[in-house]
Design a protein that fits this description.
The complex is a heterodimer of chains A (414) and B (319).
Chain A lengths: L2 H10 L3 E10 L2 E8 L5 E8 L9 H12 L8 E7 L2 E7 L3 E2 H6 L7 H20 L2 E2 L8 E3 L5 E3 L6 E2 L19 H4 L8 H16 L9 H12 L27 H4 L5 H10 L10 H5 L2 H4 L16 H7 L16 H4 L40 H11 L2 H12 L9
Antiparallel strand pairs in A: 1-2, 2-3, 3-5, 4-5, 6-8, 7-10, 8-9
Helix pairs in contact in A: 4-6
Chain B lengths: L7 H5 L4 H22 L5 E2 L5 E2 L7 H10 L5 H21 L4 H14 L10 H15 L6 H7 L4 H6 L1 H7 L9 H15 L4 H21 L4 H4 L2 H16 L4 H11 L6 H16 L6 H15 L1 H15 L1
Antiparallel strand pairs in B: 1-2
Helix pairs in contact in B: 2-3, 4-5, 4-6, 4-16, 5-6, 10-11, 10-13, 11-13, 13-15, 16-17
The chains are: A alpha+beta (414), B mainly alpha (319).
């Protein structure tokens, strides 16, 4: 078969047997399916086409573009992409649950080696991204999906970007607020892989505490929470801080010893945590170096992924639990992690620093997680695209050209 | 994404000259058959990538007649037409002052698209615009279809209509590598090699500029489908160095390879660079006159009705 024949055949031949709907995602329905070619269970994201003035969804295209190049055991696999009946279909490997569900599940006890295992897989995926010069920019527990064998994989690359070109400026409106690094909160436009490491540190802390660590309700409050925990950074700790665009002087607070914040963590864990939470992004440990830290190399080894505790598979939970559980009735659609993507886009009314703190509107089905913590803030993708357009408008293009011409690449030999 | 070695570009989109020949032949053959069977080669595309083919001809006499009128393009005519529109891609990108990287990405998309389709099936003018639009999107330098269409007086709906068929034909492999970054990298490396004093640095700058211009030309040849961006970069630099005589290129190649664990020897690499040179030398820039003839042929293949209309018009004017 020629390539073209394959394209045509795929549209008519039902390679994927449709199963139940998993939820409504950011840009369309997500459903479970069986790949008849491999027998594998997959999750298919349906993205409506032709509705938008700007053709194929920008976020979806970015995700496809990057995932095509990133093949790693700790990164979600994009199996296929094809249009069908007015929708673009993205086929992913099926993931059972996500790290947020693990952290929230009060029936689960996470041992120190379980935490070590989850963090190790997170950092492995991240180190791979950074090695390939990709910033994830939306690291948070519900973007860390967990497969049937317990493997953790980075997902949702809709905000990810290639980095590494000197002088390249990015938007600082990335990450859900609670996971945003201090340089981003101070408006940094040139930043690097340290932003992902900070977020990974927040996830590490969340695994230890079993609740989000720094729950700011505005960008200003977020910085306040960070400083209250670690102390206001001194110039000696972070010399470049005062040059950041939105830098403001904060009243000095001393911060608390890490041992007080995380009484359950051992010294190696605390040492790694402190290095991942370094204020100065230049001093912050890299994902690759973090993996070589004593925390991972000494003491009891991380739990095997297959042995990690995780919430019961959804099917079982429906069958075994009484319908009243979760308040949603047993027969409703199971909501796995992709569905939670629906709470992604929440328009903030105000600019950063003055954002209102009330819970943002969500279309999330609460039936699965009975009592949920207050709304997790997320970022507003619309604003990013808007900012990005501003960056790239015609007046700016010559500027961009100059920058791009400066891009450096190690010469390739073959 | 700075890792060519594990890229889809390297794994799926570097071919042998014979591969290319076969692919062009297959696409041309399919379009020819379509013309015979349907009397037209035009494939219409919907927003969601749905393709519709012309209706089959039922009247064999009709078929014979039309066949005699609409002659399919030959393989080399297709190539000329593609070359013409590749030139146009650079024109359009220059007009919008897009960075070189976007220009190169658009060109590579265009080349990859026509490995699978004949220009008789999808008009290169439409595909050219969609490739530029998609390249902007993929390189995070978003320009609205409307803005792009307006800037060159084209219907922006055509751009959007073809987006899905282009994405699909590219297999959704959107990250592509162009020689420019590699050229920058080698220039940086050469700064150490030539023991840079001020005069040398100026010479290197000239070498750099000329190399980028050589690479622009290279991007319109078949070389990007046959060689890696690093090889293209070295070929561009070698050519540029012939003009500027900044360094002993042979010695530089030896030096560079000896510092790494090369997969190829200097003589192998030199053979590649020679082959790239050859491709650049044999690059033809089609003239408007060439195009007029081919374009008319293409029009009749895609839309035989227009042929009849124009005949009728001629007829009338005679009366």
């Amino acid at each position: 078969m020629t390539d073209v024949d394959q394209l045509i055949a795929k549209k008519v031949a039902d390679r994927y047997l449709k199963r139940e709907v998993l939820g409504e995602g950011t840009y369309g329905v997500v459903f479970k399916a069986i790949d008849t070619k491999s027998g594998q269970t997959v999750a298919i994201k349906k993205i409506r086409l032709g509705k938008q003035k700007e053709g194929v969804n920008f976020t979806a295209l970015r995700e496809i573009k990057l995932l095509k190049e990133l093949q790693d055991p700790n990164i979600i696999q994009l199996i296929d992409a094809f249009p069908h009946k007015g929708n673009l279909h993205l086929v992913f490997e099926f993931m059972e649950t996500d790290l947020e569900a693990v952290i929230r599940d009060r029936n689960i006890v996470l041992s120190p080696t379980d935490i070590k295992s989850y963090l190790q897989m997170t950092l492995k995926g991240l180190a791979f991204c950074h090695k390939k010069w990709v910033l994830h920019r939306d690291m948070k527990p519900n973007n860390l999906l967990i497969g049937p064998g317990g493997q953790l994989k980075l997902a949702d690359f809709g905000l990810a970007r290639i980095f590494g070109s000197p002088d390249r400026r990015f938007t600082h409106q990335v990450f859900a607020r609670w996971y945003r690094a201090p340089e981003l909160l101070f408006g940094a436009k040139q930043y690097g892989s340290g932003v992902d490491v900070w977020a990974a540190a927040c996830i590490f802390a969340e695994l230890l505490l079993r609740r989000p660590f720094l729950q700011g309700n505005s960008d200003i409050d977020q910085l306040g929470k960070i400083f209250a925990a670690f102390g206001t950074p001194k110039a000696s700790q972070w010399p470049d801080m005062i040059y950041l665009p939105d830098h403001v002087e904060y009243q000095y607070v001393p911060g608390q010893p890490l041992k007080t914040l995380f009484p359950m963590a051992n010294d190696d864990a605390l040492d790694l945590l402190s290095k991942m939470f370094a204020y100065d992004p230049k001093a912050r440990i890299s994902a690759q170096m973090a993996l070589q830290h004593r925390y991972f190399t000494s003491g009891p080894p991380p739990t095997e992924p297959a042995l990690l505790p995780r919430p019961p598979p959804k099917r079982e939970s429906i069958d075994s639990k009484p319908p009243s559980e979760g308040g949603g009735g047993g027969g409703g659609p199971t909501v796995l992690s992709p569905s939670k993507k629906s709470k992604r886009v929440m328009p903030h009314q105000h600019d950063h620093g003055t954002e209102t703190s009330g819970p943002a509107p969500m279309s999330l089905d609460f039936s699965v997680f009975a009592a949920r913590p207050p709304a997790r803030p997320t970022i507003n993708r619309f604003r990013i695209i808007y900012n990005f357009k501003l960056l790239c408008n015609v007046a700016d293009r010559s500027h961009l050209k100059r920058k791009l011409d400066l891009e450096f690449q190690i010469p390739e030999e073959d | 994404m700075a890792d060519f070695t594990t890229s889809t570009h390297r794994a799926k989109w570097i071919f042998t000259p014979q591969d290319l020949k076969d692919k062009y032949k297959a696409a041309n053959h399919r379009a020819k058959q379509m013309l015979e069977k349907y009397g037209s080669t035009r494939v219409d595309v919907d927003l969601d990538g749905t393709l519709s083919y012309p209706d089959i001809l039922t009247d064999p006499k009709d078929n014979g007649e039309k066949h005699s009128r609409s002659k399919p393009l030959k393989i080399d005519e297709e190539q000329l037409l593609r070359a013409f529109y590749e030139f146009k891609i650079q024109d359009v990108c220059d007009a919008f002052k897009f960075p070189r990287k976007i220009q190169a990405t658009a060109l590579i998309y265009f080349k990859r698209f026509y490995l699978q389709w004949s220009v008789m099936e999808h008009h290169p003018k439409d595909i050219m615009l969609t490739c530029i639009y998609t390249a902007c999107k993929a390189e995070e330098n978003h320009v609205s279809a409307e803005e792009l269409g307006k800037g060159i007086d084209q219907d922006h709906q055509v751009i959007l209509n073809n987006e899905m068929v282009v994405l699909q034909s590219l297999g959704f492999d959107l990250i592509v590598y162009s020689p420019y970054r590699s050229i920058d990298g080698f220039i940086d490396d050469m700064e150490d090699f030539v023991y840079s004093n001020n005069g040398q640095l100026q010479l290197l700058k000239d070498l750099h500029e000329t190399a980028k211009m050589v690479a622009d030309k290279m991007m319109r040849s078949e070389a990007p489908l046959l060689f890696s961006p690093g090889q293209l970069a070295l070929a561009a630099l070698r050519r540029s160095n012939e003009e500027h005589q900044v360094l002993d290129f042979e010695r530089y190649l030896n030096n560079t390879l000896s510092r790494q664990h090369p997969v190829r020897t200097v003589s192998e690499l030199t053979a590649y660079l020679n082959a790239i040179d050859q491709l650049v030398n044999s690059l033809v820039t089609p003239t408007a006159a060439d195009m007029k003839h081919i374009d008319r042929k293409l029009k009749y293949c895609r839309d035989p009705g227009s042929h009849e209309k124009s005949k009728k018009r001629k007829h009338r004017s005679k009366d």
